[in-house]
Design brief:
By secondary structure, this protein is α+β, with helices and mostly antiparallel strands. It has a single domain, classed as Gcn5-related N-acetyltransferase (GNAT) (Aminopeptidase, 3-Layer(aba) Sandwich). 27% of the residues lie in helices and 33% in strands. It is built from three helices and eight strands; from the N terminus they run βαβββαβαβββ.
Length: 150
């Protein structure tokens, strides 16, 4: 039987060196290499974030970082949403986002969330209750829109 994805939520200081390395490797694989986007992924904000990590057979395959209000946006926020390219057919993005939304409720006692979403993922985020609240703008030369969920 195929094992399921398992999620853990950790503060920055709770990440092991191997976990941190794997998270940064996954983020770089997708946001820098796959999307052909040269940008500073290590932005000094990881220390302030809660890290939602998806494990499959011992491997880190999905990730988000979440912030309390005022750290990134006026509202709580979710960023660096990523699923490993080799597992995207499993549709774990929905579970990853739901765990992240639930973590915001549990850890920050809030339901208002703002994200900066890549434009091509608008429908995905709408399916999770987010509504587009801005025109398209470029972030690191990639079209984005601001979206909110209350």
């Amino acid at each position: 039987m195929e094992s399921l994805i398992e999620f853990k939520i950790k503060l920055f200081k709770e990440l092991s060196l191997n976990e941190l390395y794997s998270v940064l490797q996954l983020r770089s694989e997708v946001f820098v290499v796959e999307q052909n986007c040269v940008y500073q992924d290590i932005d000094g904000k990881d220390e302030k974030a809660l890290h939602v990590i998806g494990y499959y057979n011992g491997e880190i395959v999905a990730y988000t970082r979440i912030f309390d209000k005022g750290c990134y946006f006026d509202e709580t926020s979710i960023g660096r949403v990523v699923v490993s390219p080799k597992y995207r057919d499993k549709k774990w993005g929905y579970q990853l986002m739901q765990v992240s939304i639930d973590a915001i409720k549990e850890y920050f006692e809030d339901t208002k969330i703002t994200i900066s979403a890549q434009q091509y993922l608008t429908k995905f985020y709408q399916s999770l209750g987010f509504v587009q609240t801005s025109e398209v703008y470029l972030e690191d030369d990639i079209p984005h829109v601001q979206m909110k969920r209350s």
